[in-house]
# Entry
Amino acid sequence: MSSNLLGVVWLGLGIALVAFPHQILRLFWWHRPVTERSVIGMRRFGMLIIAAALLWMFFW
# Structure
């Protein structure tokens, strides 16, 4: 059960990274400007986390 819960937490983090990259970048890297390149990178990282979380939940 705790393994599945960990997968749900990672899934939520990935969804947040894909859905709100501007806000997350501005929250954690306030000293740097938010560029389109950084937003695309954040969305790709979020998709990678989502894929890993789904694999974790279904095959662990």
The two ends are 11 Å apart (CA to CA). Residues 2-59 form one domain.
